[in-house]
Design a protein that fits this description.
The structure is a homodimer. By secondary structure, chain A is mainly alpha-helical. Chain A has helices at residues 9-27, 35-45, 52-63, 68-89, 106-109, 112-132, 139-153, 158-168, 175-199, 206-233, 236-239, 245-248, 254-258, 260-277, 286-297; strands at 99-100, 103-104.
């Protein structure tokens, strides 16, 4: 995995997805006192999703020459948080989505109460994974990861973003409000993923961390702009959720505010800014660079 | 607070409640990007509740001669988890309770989506409090507390108990199944509270820890038996929730399985076992002893 013999992005994605799949499978095969809860947690997490956040943890760890082993539990934890947020977002009282990753959402496949409890249990499990991780990282680093993830997932990040998103539905919002909303709702967990990856090398310099954070800010937003574009132009089969569902809920999107052409330009600019931010930070940042392009060119 | 000059339980309760009120107020006065979310989180947590779990953290810390300062964030974290669980338990898809602590439940005072998000945010905040705590405890101890709380709150504890509880509703369960359910739903967080208190003294002996865990097992169950008794005999005003609400939902309870008289005997026995378990562990276990009696004699 040296700069002399760079992996293709496809190889890297497959490698990371395998690693996180393994960790999730192992974590979710532990004995849980309710079979129903266990089955529903596994349904919510396994066999699906692009695993973008874990991939970012690994790519960031790679960029600072950290060991992939030390990044495994951070990668698993961010995916558990992401999975829980999808289960709760899909609930009837929230976005009311019946389809997720091409399958019935958890509250449709099981029931609403189970979906609420699955989300709650996955969140707790994410923090348990970070606190229990058995690797070369110091206790201080593990605690720092826990703080980062809790801050990104809760009232200072994702959950606040989701609250603002629900409030914005059906109202006219300005571009800067939409940006704040998405920096919280999507951006904070993406940023935490990149930061946690960097923490896997305790010798990571302040300059590297700063560059990685700028990278994360840009791709976090790029990711959301591309999501809005896909909601407008993608088809239901490819997306795994109903195409146009945001528009149908009259949610403000980058496409509705900027128009499709300008939204595409913005996504490309953000990806470019992300790549510029990490220029020269290390000889192992190929995957991060490729990921920035992948994020704005993906079709689902 | 020495054994020569023991505090009354009332004084101890007031002292602990003040401490945890202060920590919760401080934690929930931080800047949160959504005013609505912040308001609803504060509504869910402040000015209410007996704070039994934080009191147990403090009493356990006191029993092993640990500093109350070092117990503050553990006490705050268990109460945040407890508060989140109440908010989610009250949701229409769960127990559908409109009243909590004498006020409209969060989903009635705000709305369902906000209640889901409030619970999610409070859970994240609990782990953030543990990871960020700035005191004399080592990073290893803080991590151990985080693991304990995550395990107790999630799929291996409380959340599994709540799943089993919902499944049991309207069915005939045996006494041992009811006990398993409550050991998970209520007992695991109570046990974590006692264990986290003990961790505040890193020199706490294995024998002390073992005695405290036995204590916690017994009072955890005693607490639930008394809850079932109060649901049968208490009145709505004193309880802060509709009297007979468990019976109305045809939930199995200790009273429905054992009868009122036997349930009262069982509660008293459990409290007694708890007190026996900690006999001789230290000269500072008065509060724990008094609490065991308080738990089975409380009227709300």
């Amino acid at each position: 995995m040296s700069a002399q013999n760079p992996q293709s992005l496809d190889q890297f994605l497959i490698q990371c997805q395998k690693r996180v799949e393994y960790s999730l499978e192992k974590t979710l095969s532990r004995s849980i006192p309710s079979n129903k809860l266990k089955k529903a947690m596994r349904y919510a997490c396994l066999d699906g999703g692009k695993r973008i956040r874990p991939v970012l943890v690994y790519a960031s760890a790679q960029a600072v020459d950290a060991s992939m082993n030390d990044a495994d539990m951070a990668a698993c934890a961010v995916e558990l948080i992401h999975s829980y947020s999808l289960v709760h977002d899909d609930l009837p009282a929230m976005d009311d989505d019946d389809l997720r990753r091409g399958k019935p959402s958890v509250h449709k496949a099981f029931n609403e109460a189970t979906a609420i409890l699955v989300g709650d249990a996955l969140q707790a499990l994410a923090f348990q994974c970070l606190a229990e991780q058995n690797n070369a990282l110091s206790a201080e680093t593990k605690l720092l990861m826990t703080t980062m993830l809790a801050e990104a997932a809760g009232a200072f990040g994702m959950t606040a973003g989701q609250t603002l998103d629900l409030e914005a539905s059906g109202t006219r919002v300005e571009l800067n409000e939409l940006e704040t909303l998405h920096r919280l709702k999507t951006g904070s967990l993406i940023k935490a993923s990149v930061r946690m990856g960097a923490l896997c090398n305790p010798q990571c310099s302040e300059a590297q961390l700063c560059a990685l954070e700028q990278y994360a800010d840009n791709i976090g937003l790029a990711f959301q702009v591309q999501d809005d574009i896909l909601d407008e132009i993608g088809d239901t089969d490819t997306l795994g959720k109903p195409q146009g569902s945001d528009r149908a809920q009259t949610k403000p999107t980058y496409v509705s505010l900027l128009g499709l052409g300008n939204a595409k330009t913005k996504a490309a600019e953000l990806a470019n800014n992300a790549i510029l931010a990490i220029e020269g930070i290390s000889t192992s940042a190929n995957s991060l660079r490729d990921l920035a392009n992948y994020i704005v060119n993906r079709i689902h």
